[in-house]
# Entry
Amino acid sequence: MNILEMAKTAGNVLPETYKVMTKEEMERRVRKIKQQLGSRLYIPGHHYQREEVIQFSDVTGDSLQLAQLSAQNREAEYIVFCGVHFMAETADILTTEGQTVILPDMRAGCSMADMADIDQTERAWTKLQSMFGDTILPLTYVNSTAAIKAFVGKNGGATVTSSNAQGMVSWALSQKERILFLPDQHLGRNTAYDLGIPLKQMAVWDPHNDELIYEGELEDLKVLLWKGHCSVHENFTTANIETLRAEQPEMNIIVHPECRREVVALSDYNGSTSYIINMIEKAKSGSSWAIGTEMNLVKRLIANNPDKNIISLNPNMCPCLTMNRIDLPHLLWALESIAEGTVINPIKVEKKIADNAILALNRMLERV
Ligand code: 13P
Ligand code: SF4
# Structure
């Protein structure tokens, strides 16, 4: 479901009472419900969530850790997922029938996940099969809809996250001659490049024109990249790096691999959300860091590491707007709806889709 479709089904809009309640009152009520529900309730929170929400999460993690934790938790009846829609879908697929996954605000989508819809993907697959025959394995970043994960699962492929992308791409290329990597061209390109695959062996599939864009020889292509991107990480530019190198040469530059290839190439380090957190936490006291990732996380790293000099690589960076939809009023609303027995915003992936999507997820989970 894309963001527009979600907004349409989201007949549920935050009741006025939550808009006028004080922060202290909301926090008091969240604490009370958490205490009342105990282990019947589980609140996973992605690192990009706001502080006002993260303070109440039972676990905080990147997308891989949250998928693993959802697969392990068999105790909670209600999983209130503080993250975006595709993460809640993944949690629903990996949990049992009796567990209900709730997304506090249905407008918390992901623009990258919406860049590959299932019709476009089926069309691309038909065309690519006619060009390359049965030589392609599909891989999808978990930042994709359940329907895309199901497509990938049905065709023998797997999901990947930014923290296991290298291992998963290597595995896929040991199975077939080439891969189709959905929907983030940058993660796909950066990962393949780090594995030693030259750029001329990579092509971009443009889903709007149903066209493969490449420069080298068709038969040499190994990595077919879907033309999608993260609208947050694309805001880090080579100009940001050049300015910083000129003005503050002592800065270590670390970026997420959802950034463009040129940005990753000019940075000192690149890696997943967990990689960035570990690097900063282990860094020497007094060291200086410019970080190219989502702003809620950068702000948290600044607050938690007062002995280091940390800034955002882009001084005008904003948080991920869809991650930010999950705020304290929506969290409280979701929790009170459970306490009242009128659950709002449950995420339920259709069985036919879930049965195929889990194949793709399990192929990843059994390799990490
Ligand atoms: P990771 O948590 O895998 O680093 O993904 C980053 C992201 O963009 C989540 O939406
Ligand atoms: Fe999607 Fe990018 Fe936001 Fe992650 S940071 S949820 S990939 S738009």
Notes: The chain has three domains: 3-110+322-350, 113-230, 233-312. Residues 62-64, 110, 143, 161-163, 230, 258, 272-273 surround 1,3-dihydroxyacetonephosphate (ligand 1) (CB under 6 Å).
